[in-house]
Amino acid sequence: MKNILPVLLLLLCNACASTQPPESPSRIAAMNDLAIFAMSLADTQYQYGGNSPENGFDCSGFVRYVFQKSLGWPLPRTSEEMSHAGVALSANQLRPGDLVFFNTQQQPFSHVGIYVGEDRFVHAPKTGKAIALVNMRENYWQSRYDGARRIAAVP
After folding, report:
1. Which of 47, 102, 104, 139 lies at a 20 to 30 A Cα distance from 24?
2. Reported pTM
3. How many CB atoms lie within 10 A of CB 46?
4. Is 111 considered catalytic here?
5. Residues paired with 46 in a beta bridge
6. What is the pLDDT averaged over residues 138-144?
7. Region class of 142: left (phi > 0), else alpha (psi between -120 and 50), else beta
8. pLDDT for the residue numbered 155
């Protein structure tokens, strides 16, 4: 009985551990396409409340537009609302198409972008700037990182 207790405890801990199931090749391809589409919108100007290439984007309008046009998946309108969608990830689990969140206005989850790989994400930064690809390892972004989410197919 003494020897069984540690084994049962280990099994219980493993059962509670959060693991991500492997992704299908078709999902990986779709998310890579989404990341490429997001980057194709580079140079589109920032516009507070904007949600189209013609009128410009704010950060959440940009993410919402990319997911809707690429995959037909509707997302919530604000970055804070998006921070509740999908599955939470640790930074070492990031894959292209995942959402990355930052505290840029002294408010958690006040900014969102789309991870594209190699520690980079694409986002709509601020007034006077355009959609840009940036490195998450820059001190500014590292110090403001709030987490990431993986969006599953939306019915």
Report:
1. 102
2. 0.85
3. 21
4. yes
5. 57
6. 98
7. alpha
8. 44
d(C-alpha 141, C-alpha 144), whole Å: 5
* CA-CA-CA-CA torsion sign (123, 88, 28, 145): positive
Residue with tokens 């509707």: 74
Which of 13, 16, 59, 84 is the catalytic position? 59
Inter-helix orientation angle 25-40/59-71, to 10°: 130
| SS3 sequence of 7-54 | HHHHHHHHHHCCCCCCCCHHHHHHHHHHHHHHHHCCCCEECCCCEECC
Question: Contact, 77 vs 60, CB < 8 A?
Answer: yes
Indicate the class that CATH gives domain 25-150. Answer: alpha beta
> Quick one: average pLDDT of 72-77?
96
Encoded tokens for 60: 């959440």
